[in-house]
Amino acid sequence: MTVIEKLNDINNVIKELFEFVQIDSSTKDDFHEYLSTMSAVNATPNQMEKLFIPYVFERNLGEPAQSVIEIFNNNKKLKNPKIARSLLNAQYSVFRVKKILKNGFELFNLINEKQYTVLSLTKMTSFRGVGIGEFIVARIFKHENEYYLLGIDNMLPSSKVKEAVRYAIVKIVQSPWLVYEDNKKKENEIKSDISKMYDRFVELFGSDEVITTNRYADTVIGILNDEDKLEDFDMITASKPLEQYKFFAIKELNNSYDNFLENSLGGFSSHTELYDVGVIFDKELGLYSIPFYKTFCMIFEDSSKVEDVKGCVNYFLTNDAISDNIIKRIASKYPNFTDKINEILEKNYTLDDLISVYKSEFLKRKIYSSTSVLYHSTVFSTSLDILEANEKESVKSVSTPAVKVGRNEPCPCGSGKKYKNCCLSLQKNL
What we know:
Blueprint lengths: L2 H21 L4 H10 L7 H14 L1 E2 L4 E2 H6 L7 H7 L3 E10 L3 E6 L5 E6 L14 E9 L2 E11 L4 H14 L9 H22 L3 E5 L3 H9 L6 H7 L6 E2 L13 H7 L9 E7 L3 E6 L1 H10 L3 E2 L1 H10 L5 H10 L3 H9 L5 H8 L1 H5 L5 H5 L3 H13 L4 H5 L23 H7 L1
Parallel strand pairs: 5-7, 9-12
Antiparallel strand pairs: 1-2, 3-4, 3-6, 4-5, 6-7, 8-10, 10-11
């Protein structure tokens, strides 16, 4: 089959998908509502086609929740199910344009640190404004060992390195699997590190969870990174527990594009109000720092001692940063877990039902904790180095060490990798 024939087949499947969302009973009303929220009910066909790509990949419908692209793949009338299945594994990431080809691009993925040659599904004249060195937010997918570009959602000039890095980090926090998706070597590094760090955590603290408050959560994590600070743990264990458990919104925990990096540097201790935090090391998925962990547990001990019980339950069930393993951990501690949840939500779930409805993403793929994944993200370690050194300086000038560092020496960003495999490598691609 020629390249042209492959492109035609893929474009035919995308057209079939576009028709599906407009006429299928499971999606047509929701798609119309989506267009209404985007003020695009009267959009032209070309405008609507651009809007429908994020819709089919990001909109979730039903119980258990499924993306529209998953619902489409369950359609038994598909003309080319192989291509439709390939779309399920599309990557949405931040890329740097390395080369412009006759029929596509060479792109460097800032998040999983891999380079891709991608073929365009449309004429290259559609991307006339895209230049070498610029950053794009794009969706690509692999089919029969070749990668294809589904579309570009955003573009930043080459001078906006810091903004591109910031956006990449927010994407990692929202979707940690992007770091190791299509990068088995990176995933193996993360798995190996989690195994070692779990044993170290238990050895240090005598348990795989530490219940504390936001005043001391940073100290616990600091001890994990520097065992010389272990004496500080006595101060934590001697601190009084909270007298009252209440759930409330914490503005500093808003992982938005604008404030995530700054809040990462500030830590829990910079938050104005006092609340409990569970520092949990899950043997399979890694390190979690979970606000209101003890508050949530108290609901199953004595809910009368908890303020805003329903708000707390909804927070734990709908927060994508809290894994199914965390929910199962708490359920294993309290025999009344599902009964109490059903009473609060006025439902009749089994534990499996609950996981299927609220934590379905964790059933589809292995999602390691964002904290554990960020430890292995070069773009994250470099960005923190930038902010700590001087936020006003450019990424390149700050991430390059003042003292000459050998290629095989430890990277000054503190990642533990050799300089050539860490910031030096990233600088070349930025």
